[in-house]
């Protein structure tokens, strides 16, 4: 029987086959092969013995958070508490785009901003939307749900950013634990401890444990194409890295204010090691 892994807790894999759920174990052979089943995997199970027999080839996968076969990622980004970081946002976007997953940016804690701080975020929302990444505030539920319709979506973001809070808002029957004690104590405390896919209305949404730091593991070559607004066609050299080459259209657009300077600075931080 075929199904999808929707949750893993310790060594127990919950596999959903149509509307039934089976709590399965994985065979040692996966470990020996150096691969373990992850949430989102399509698997063949032996429902009588409750074991996973095989894993279907993945369409895509993420390492942070660990999940496979998703269409979109909602990149949860705080406006404050913890403080907004454009570098973290751009790293999360690269992480998603490099794995063939469509990002959506969702800002949280906009309500905690002072009036004069808000326009900075409106400008960011405009900029990212313009370059092709839909961007919303977590109060714009209808827009978000339209973007997620019929898709399998993963939430990604640092710990305390508001991922589980958003899931609870989207599905009033879920009462996932949310907490901000970590902020009061000033150290990382992960409230969500496992990845779990929830069926909500007409989409699947995965809540995930947040991270406290995110490293970029992509090659510079891949990173360049994740900056969607950096168009190579207009550069003098078609392999232009947009660093110190002559006739670079990206640098020209940067000087003309068409490219956001934080985007270019973050790109440089990621590719110049
Ligand atoms: N004021 C305000 N607080 C928010 C908002 N979103 C989340 N919070 C609060 O932020 C804290 C952390 O939220 P969580 O939903 O637990 O964060 P998380 O991303 O799930 O964290 P981890 O599970 O550790 O990865 C909670 O106290 C929430 O009530 C928001 O938009 N505005
Ligand atoms: Mg959580
Ligand atoms: Zn260039």
Secondary structure category: alpha/beta
Number of domains: 3
In CATH, what is the class of the largest domain?
Alpha Beta
Q: Taking all residues together, what is the mean pLDDT?
A: 93
* Coarse morphology: globular
Can you count the helices? 9
The fold-level CATH name of the largest domain is Rossmann fold
**Rg (CA only):** 20 Å
CATH architecture descriptor of the largest domain: 3-Layer(aba) Sandwich
CATH superfamily of the largest domain: P-loop containing nucleotide triphosphate hydrolases
Topology as a string of helices (H) and strands (E): EEEHEEEEEHEHEHEHHEEHHH
Ions, cofactors and other bound molecules: guanosine-5'-triphosphate, magnesium ion, zinc ion
Residue ranges: pLDDT <50 for 5 or more in a row? none
* Helix proportion range: 25-40%
The separation of the N and C termini measures: 48 Å
Strand order of the largest sheet: 10-9-8-11-13-12
Q: Can you summarize the main beta sheet? A: 6 strands, mixed
Fraction in beta strands = 15-25%
Number of strands: 13
């Amino acid at each position: 029987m075929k199904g999808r892994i929707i949750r893993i807790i310790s060594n127990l894999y919950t596999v959903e086959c149509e509307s039934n759920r089976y709590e399965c174990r994985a065979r040692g052979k996966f470990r020996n092969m150096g691969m373990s089943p992850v949430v989102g995997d399509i698997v063949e199970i032996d429902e009588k013995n409750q074991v996973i027999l095989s894993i279907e080839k993945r369409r895509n996968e993420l390492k942070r958070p660990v999940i496979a076969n998703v269409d979109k990622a909602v990149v949860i980004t705080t406006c404050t508490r913890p403080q907004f970081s454009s570098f973290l946002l751009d790293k999360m976007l690269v992480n998603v785009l490099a794995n063939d997953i469509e990002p959506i940016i969702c800002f949280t804690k906009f309500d905690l901003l002072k009036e004069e701080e808000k326009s900075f975020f409106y400008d960011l929302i405009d900029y990212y939307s313009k370059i092709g990444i839909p961007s919303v505030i977590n109060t714009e539920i209808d827009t978000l749900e339209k973007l997620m319709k019929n898709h399998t979506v993963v939430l990604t973001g640092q710990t305390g950013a508001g991922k589980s809070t958003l899931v609870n808002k989207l599905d009033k029957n879920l009462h996932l634990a949310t907490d901000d004690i970590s902020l009061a104590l000033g150290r990382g405390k992960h409230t969500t401890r496992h990845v779990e896919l929830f069926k909500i209305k007409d989409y699947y949404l995965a809540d995930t444990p947040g991270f406290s730091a995110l490293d970029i593991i992509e090659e510079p070559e891949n990173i360049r194409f994740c900056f969607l607004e950096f168009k190579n066609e207009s550069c003098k050299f078609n392999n232009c890295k947009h660093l110190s080459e002559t006739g670079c259209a990206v640098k020209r657009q940067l000087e003309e204010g068409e490219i956001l300077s934080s985007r270019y600075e973050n790109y440089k931080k990621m590719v110049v090691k």
